[in-house]
Design brief:
- By secondary structure, this protein is an alpha+beta fold.
- Helix content is about 50%, strand content about 15%.
- Helix 7 runs parallel beside helix 9, helix 8 packs antiparallel against helix 9 and helix 9 packs antiparallel against helix 10.
- It is globular.
């Protein structure tokens, strides 16, 4: 659903210029220092990138899912770390409030997030509960007008920089599955919250994750998302459905950059007196990558339009995330192969992207979880009788 094509084009063109003029030149600095420069973060705030999916009435841009796809694909031409900085606020950090928050919660928190004044993180994964979100052990026990939270969350993106957490915790100990889980809005500076050291990852330098430890953290009872206990898992699933489409957007953007770098090298690098792009086996790798990229982009746009139309998109979101994340991994692998020994060195960005995009097959649900979601939905719906 693109409401104003001219306005969207102006926004995407502005992001393209920002990527070209500001983000690409700073990529080596981000890789070397493991930090995004503060002036770039401020520029991202001023461009409205933290508020892409927050409704306009709360200070955001209020983009539809399809409009967001065009912007994220453009932004993801640059290092995925830049997108990661805004991603938890645009997506899983704020969307629980956007989708299920009370009017008071939306009015209080969404303007802070849309401006980039506070970064939101999504606290779901635990040391013993990742894909099995229904087995969460973090507890929130009612104590008067507050809940007392205890537990540990793991691999929380942007946690070191977060101002707010959307926290999933078990409020009903008698419910062992998803029904006993509630979602909370928690201030990151609340007494009792501690942070583990930043995770040392194989890629995604500049994008930080760490453990978040809650020890007797008191959270006001009116911070339950939607004001109702036991709805947290449903909120999480709604958020993750959109998040999976969002990951597909990033994969498409990153694959475009990787393939462009590979094509440029193939047309410039000469062997046997001619560019290696003239060799059919190199052409096959380029062509396969372009075909898969096109397929992934079509899936992203179709799933986005279906979500904007109000359709149930659990299967489509999982299929998009599965295919797009596997696609970008194959594109990166072929690109490195095209560059040969040069691709294995840090002189070329392919080496970095090769490491960075590996994460996309893991977070927001592994490829195997997406396969499980798709298959279970198929079985539940049953075969179509013609």
């Amino acid at each position: 659903m693109v409401r104003d094509p001219e306005q969207l084009k102006a926004l995407v063109d502005g992001v393209d210029r920002f990527v070209r003029d500001r983000l690409l030149p700073a990529e080596p600095v981000v890789e070397e220092t493991d930090d995004i420069p503060a002036d770039i973060i401020q520029d991202m705030r001023e461009l409205g990138l933290f508020g892409l999916s927050v409704p306009e009435e709360f200070g955001g841009l209020g983009l539809t899912t399809e409009e967001e796809a065009h912007v994220i694909i453009a932004l993801s031409w640059a290092s995925p770390a830049y997108r990661s900085l805004i991603g938890t606020t645009v997506g899983i950090g704020s969307q629980g409030i956007v989708i299920d928050g009370t009017p008071q919660q939306k009015a209080e928190f969404l303007p802070q997030l849309a401006s980039g004044g506070k970064i939101a993180s999504f606290c779901l994964t635990e040391p013993d509960a990742g894909s099995d979100a229904g087995s969460l052990r973090t507890r929130a026990v009612r104590d008067g007008d507050h809940y007392v939270v205890n537990g540990t969350k793991r691999f929380i993106t942007n946690a070191p920089h977060a101002g707010l957490f959307t926290l999933m915790a078990r409020t009903d100990p008698n419910e062992k599955g998803a029904a006993g889980v509630s979602a909370f809005i928690v201030d990151a500076d609340s007494p009792g919250i501690r942070f583990g050291r930043k995770d040392a990852k194989m890629g995604m330098r500049g994008a930080h994750t760490c453990d978040v430890i809650f020890e007797d953290v008191r959270v006001p009872a009116d911070r339950i998302v939607g004001g109702v206990e036991g709805q947290g898992f449903k909120t999480a699933m709604k958020v993750l459905d959109k998040g999976r489409i969002h990951i597909g957007m990033i994969c498409v953007g990153a694959a475009r950059r990787i393939l462009d770098e590979a094509l440029r090298y193939a047309t410039e690098r000469k062997q046997f007196g001619q560019p290696i792009a003239n060799f059919q086996l190199v052409q096959a790798m380029l062509a396969d990558s372009r075909a898969e990229l096109y397929a992934a982009q079509c899936m992203v746009m179709d799933a986005a339009r279906r979500r904007d139309a109000g359709e149930k998109i659990s299967t489509e979101a999982a299929a998009t995330k599965l295919f797009a994340s596997e696609m970008v991994g194959r594109v990166a692998d072929r690109a490195l192969q095209i560059l040969g020994g040069a691709g294995y060195t840090k002189e070329y960005v392919i080496e970095r992207f090769y490491r960075d995009v590996r994460l996309f097959r893991i977070y927001e649900g592994t490829s195997q979880i997406q396969q499980t979601v798709i298959a279970r939905n198929m079985i539940r719906e049953g075969p179509r009788v013609l």
